[in-house]
């Protein structure tokens, strides 16, 4: 039985803050602070260059990849850390396309995170070979999978609405049509049970600064199904993906399996923080996280709909059909969110009109949900959002 | 007048260690430790998601890029931080090739860092358009530049020997032949004066964990000459290179100038450490760093040649023709370096036979050089390297 009061004690949450934005940036795990301090002083400071061997820096991408793999149904040796999610999308998509050389269509949907679409557009421009990015609405994906599709590239949980794709069903349909799949797990990893192996996913990528609490700009991960891993050509063929990086050959020879998806020198500060952050998952049952997440989301929806009629639900009502976040829509969403933040309820805003709230059982409970609704109710009932300063948009929304 | 005793006091150097490997990983700046601790507690911990605006995280890649730019002769707004050096090589090369669409040759040399060559090979594989990587010997580069060359891609300072290319002359020759240039400054930035604008360089890239002391896996940088910056197509077109990332458009529109070379969410822990590390350069005159570096290198060469005849110089003898490192060659180089490290003299080994020593005036002085030679002399004269344990190769050499 997962003890959520224990997991809550592992995070630093400022006094007076109800943090409903862990779907964007998870809060600081106390262990990460300690781990990074130790890295700075004892490892970088004390070991200097020897840290690569003696502190195990060089093997962190694989070792931590295995830890992430456990949370997403990936076997040992199939996940590696590094770079950013956008770079990992590019790698996965470039390799995936070469597995289906006779087809030109990349199928995605308008609920995919824009950077995934942009990376596809950039890759298509480089390939110069007639590839096409076909973007349909999320509910049209299933019927759009046909024998022209080379790669089905989707984010499992929609960043705006929380809508959840059926990874297993869509992967099966893609395979039946002769396509391969690239799944973005940005809003899935740490939010709900993911079973990459069970779903037969070909490639998957994700970030670790959301539900995995790795810190701002924490390293991304990539998964390649074992039956593909030794066959794919890495488009971003960096030295740490080489079979023998320290022989300094002039010609690239890909490393075995997932190693070839490594590129450059790994970001050790970020990896150390993430490594410690992952400790929070020891003894945590993801099915219990999922059950509690749905309970918190359902409670939030019910209370907001009862008390704030001006807000329209922007997420699926059925808990089984969404991730761990809830969006409500309002044309003054931006200002409403600023008013909430000023009162200590931190969520975020996604253009054009969504206010987004993430519910993360590791550190958020029912009391937080009810208190957040009290404050939201007060703001809506008394139009506390209707002040000019809350309409001034910041660089990052 | 640069005060090198002041700069030395800014770094943590363990008792009993003579650190001659700052050309691989710079030592810990005390300010970086403080800065990262503050980032963890006050910013990530205290500000949570608000750190992106309130702590200026989102603008760090440009702000720190300008700080690096000052050290490499780049105007404000022409350098941006992010990713790893290998990724930045790919970006620069992909954009450079599209500026010369009618030519297929990428000219490089065998002294380039292998990852740069590997990234070129990976890009060529994706382009599938008949491009060719032509690798010549370093001394043949000048004569190999002809009207078939699309891009001249070189590392200014050879990672093995320290040999220094003449960036201005080779760039001029490349331009005269109708080619564009990509310069890797991994062993130049912070080691010697670099004048990208004066040399007319088109693209430049580099890492920051060597002479810039940004920490293990610190973020890389990319420079694009102002007259190219608004014209190049970013192959790695991530959301933070978009003109307006937070409008979440489905189509990519490149940001203005150097911004389009941003890709994904920036690695804030690494950027914070680097930002603090760059403080060490305030009040430092790079021409004095260069003069002192040559003095230290010359002293090392003279003393080693006098006392250790079994070691053969693997670097240019003329200080003006090398970077800030010295290599000596010996077939038992690996074991010799292990023996040195066991005695507190930290350099490194590069296959097949080079022992490498970096000389970094910010924290290394004449006394360190002489003491290091004493220990090397003892090891060579008494064959202290000749024990089995020093021959066992570690993962990272």
Describe the SSE topology.
The structure is a homodimer.
Chain A: H1 4-8, E1 11-12, E2 18-19, E3 28-29, H2 30-47, H3 51-54, H4 60-71, E4 79-81, H5 85-99, E5 105-109, H6 114-127, E6 132-136, H7 141-144, E7 149-155, H8 167-176, E8 180-184, H9 196-199, E9 203-206, E10 221-224, H10 226-229, H11 268-277, H12 286-307, E11 312-313, E12 325-329, H13 333-342, E13 345-346, E14 348-350, E15 354-358, H14 366-381
Parallel strand pairs in A: 2-13, 5-6, 5-7, 7-8, 8-9
Antiparallel strand pairs in A: 1-3, 4-10, 9-10, 11-12, 12-15, 14-15
Helix pairs in contact in A: 2-11, 4-11, 5-6, 12-14
Can you describe this structure?
The structure is a homodimer of 397-residue chains. The first copy, chain A, has 397 residues and is α/β, with parallel strands linked by helices. The first copy, chain A, has two domains: 249 residues, 3-Layer(aba) Sandwich (Aspartate Aminotransferase, domain 2), CATH 3.40.640; 107 residues, Aspartate Aminotransferase, domain 1. Chain A contains 14 helices and 15 strands. In chain A, the strands form four sheets. A seven-stranded mixed beta sheet of chain A has the order 4-10-9-8-7-5-6, sandwiched between helices. In chain A, β7, α8 and β8 form a beta-alpha-beta unit. The first copy, chain A, is globular, with a radius of gyration of 22 Å. The two termini of chain A are 37 Å apart. The mean pLDDT of chain A is 97. Chains A and B meet through α2, α3, α5, α6 and α11 of A and α2, α3, α5, α6 and α11 of B. Chains A, B: Catalyzes the cleavage of L-kynurenine (L-Kyn) and L-3-hydroxykynurenine (L-3OHKyn) into anthranilic acid (AA) and 3-hydroxyanthranilic acid (3-OHAA), respectively. Chains A, B: This is Kynureninase. Chains A, B: Its cofactor is pyridoxal 5'-phosphate. Chains A, B: Belongs to the kynureninase family.
